[in-house]
Design goal:
Blueprint lengths: L2 H37 L3 H11 L6 E4 L2 H4 L4 H8 L3 E3 L7 H11 L7 E5 L15 H4 L6 H10 L2 H8 L2 H4 L8 H4 L35 H15 L3 E6 L6 H17 L3 E3 L22 H18 L12 H19 L4 H7 L5 E6 L10 H10 L5 E4 L14 E8 L5 E11 L2 E6 L4
Helix pairs in contact: 4-13, 5-7, 5-11, 7-8, 15-16
């Protein structure tokens, strides 16, 4: 065989082998990728689906911990201000993680404003691994993701966050329909809380008292500020309100020094006039806001952002018409959420909503007007919703009304549709049971 022909055949064999190896590798990567998508938990997919799918830029991104996750509702900002935003926050996220989260987000969108909460600024831990997958699972693979895990995690932990099949492969026994066709979140990254827990307002210390201790998360906050300035993105610091001990207030007050140093605003909502009612607006003891408290924070932010920044009202723009459709799904979700309530406090708390108009039928001597917590919750409805107090009528539906019972009818904001009807029955002092009333 001529040498040239032999060399040519040898090259062809090598080429075919290389092509076969390449095809096998691509098929293997495809199979592993699909398998990984099926087996991984879907929380991250659901939370960030709308963020990664949207082609148009977001005007505002919100960063922080669960304090922000439960306190800022992008769909309410859309309804009332036409602001296109996303709640990127996650449970127990540190500022170090927020930095990488923002860098990842900026690969997909260029916001006009970034708003970040400072609750996690007092610490030297880079990451809370218990919740990190809530962010990283949906994050597309890239060199930035590699760089991120190298910064946040020890070497033996990194592979789990780049290829999470090693973590989720044992889920085969719990796989369900939602794993094959996962649903998407309707809240643009937020999480609505329905619980009501009575809290005590914090005893405030002077704003000038703050904790100057240098922390790793404070250093990463500066990196976030510098990144935003380099990209010509406005940045706003904030602190979500809760029943704060003195030490936490000193950490929160440090934000004023950071804001002054960088020439940026700071909204410390512990001091801002939000009309937060600690009897109606808290989901748990000391930390998170429920849906009522969140609407107050969200409304304040909507007014502040639309007043101080070039944030457009997109409601009349055809490019964002699908946000109206998204809002209708979100509104229906809120209605379904209301219908499921069996706790009287939660039910009344959720009626503080611009989408609802409430009619309350009760005797003038009803115990509901003597129960302080009930009075707080009913009075709170009028902050964003509307409540009409009515006396029992003579029709048969009111024959069961007495001082121990209250009938509630909830209508759409324009009063065109009755969407919920409940009877509250006082079973013992400060205790109420709820009964459905068949709507006509």
């Amino acid at each position: 065989m001529p040498q040239a022909l032999f060399t040519s055949n040898s090259r062809m064999v090598k080429f075919r082998r290389a092509a076969a190896v390449l095809c096998f590798s691509l098929i293997l990567m495809l199979v592993v990728g699909v398998t990984q998508k099926v087996f991984e938990r879907k929380y991250s997919y659901s939370k960030y689906y709308d963020f990664y799918q949207q082609e148009e830029d977001f005007d505002v991104l919100f960063l922080g911990t669960s304090h922000v996750l439960n306190a800022v509702y992008p769909m309410e900002l859309w309804r009332d201000y036409g602001i296109v935003s996303y709640n990127m926050a996650n449970h127990s996220e540190n500022i170090c993680t927020n930095y990488w989260q923002l860098r990842n987000a900026l690969q997909f969108t260029t916001p006009k404003v970034v708003v970040i909460d400072l609750y996690a600024v007092d610490g030297d831990s880079k990451v809370n691994e218990q919740y990190l997958h809530n962010f990283t699972d949906a994050m597309p693979f890239s060199m930035l993701k590699v760089e991120m895990v190298q910064d946040l995690l020890a070497p033996e932990k990194r592979m789990e966050y780049l290829f999470n099949l090693s973590l989720y492969h044992s889920r085969w026994e719990e796989l369900g329909r939602e794993d094959m066709k996962p649903g998407t979140g309707l809240e643009k990254g937020a999480e609505l809380r329905e619980e009501v827990t009575v809290n005590v307002p914090p005893v405030l210390i002077p704003k000038e008292e703050y904790d100057p201790t240098d922390r790793l998360n404070k250093q990463y906050l500066q990196k976030i500020i510098d990144l935003c300035k380099a990209r010509n993105i406005e940045i706003v610091l904030m602190y979500i309100p809760y029943t704060m001990p003195e030490g936490d207030q000193q950490v929160a007050n440090w934000g004023y020094a950071a804001a002054e140093k960088n020439g940026i605003p700071y909204l410390n909502f512990v001091y801002e006039d939000l009309a937060i009612n600690y009897a109606t607006d808290c989901a748990d003891e000391a930390h998170h806001l429920n849906a009522s408290g969140a609407k107050k924070v969200t409304a304040y932010l909507g007014d502040y952002l639309s007043t101080h920044y070039d944030v457009e009202d997109h409601r009349a723009q055809t490019a964002y018409a699908y946000w109206h459709e998204d809002y209708e799904e979100y509104r229906q979700m809120k209605q379904d959420w209301l219908d499921r309530q069996q706790n009287a406090w939660s039910y009344l708390m959720l009626l503080n909503d611009r989408d609802y108009q409430t009619k309350l039928y009760a005797t003038k001597t009803s115990y509901i007007y003597q129960d302080q917590q009930m009075k707080e919750l009913i009075g709170n409805i009028d902050v964003y919703g509307k409540v009409e107090h009515l006396a029992p009528t003579d029709d048969s539906s009111d024959e069961i009304l007495n001082d121990n019972t209250v009938r509630i009818e909830v209508y759409t904001a324009d009063e065109s549709t009755l969407i919920s009807s409940r009877l509250l029955v006082r079973s013992e002092e400060n205790m109420y049971e709820m009964q459905d009333i068949v709507m006509q």
